[in-house]
Amino acid sequence: MRELFSLETQTREAADMIERSARELPELADLLNTGLREPVLAALTGYLGSRALSGKLRTTPDTAATARLVLETLTWFARHRHSDPYGAAIPDGLAEDTAVDALIHALVPAKLLGGRA
């Protein structure tokens, strides 16, 4: 999650520009969705599913929807919070720690969290 957060942070301005431009350029929208988002969501869905099968993560109602929740949460805290005055007030490190902490506590079984529950 921290690696994905870091990637979202590093590519924030370029990704925002591509998203804005994709509204008017169908080819760019296709690249954004098929070329960028789809592979990330597929890999994340596979990862979450395999970790749930091994007992390292909780089983969720739908692994693909959970992958989307993880991605969107990290994306908001890494990128989109900057366009919200209250979100922009959250320092980078705190934004990352908060998003990762919330997602870990949502996905990791309590018995595996030890003293972090």
Account of the protein in words:
The chain has 117 residues and is mainly α. Helix content is 75%, strand content 0%. It is built from 7 helices and no strands. The chain has helices spanning 2-10, 12-22, 26-53, 63-78, 85-88, 92-107, 110-113. Helix 3 (26-53) packs across helix 4. The longest helix is centred in the middle third of the chain and has 28 residues, at 26-53. The radius of gyration is 16 Å and the shape is flat.
Shape: flat
Count of individual beta strands: 0
Put simply, the count of helices is 7
- Contiguous low-pLDDT stretches (5 residues minimum) are none
Outline:
The chain has 117 residues and is an all-alpha fold. It has helices at 2-10, 12-22, 26-53, 63-78, 85-88, 92-107, 110-113.
Record keyword descriptors for this entry.
about 120 residues; mainly alpha
Topology, please?
Blueprint: H1 2-10, H2 12-22, H3 26-53, H4 63-78, H5 85-88, H6 92-107, H7 110-113
Helix pairs in contact: 1-4, 2-3, 3-4, 4-6
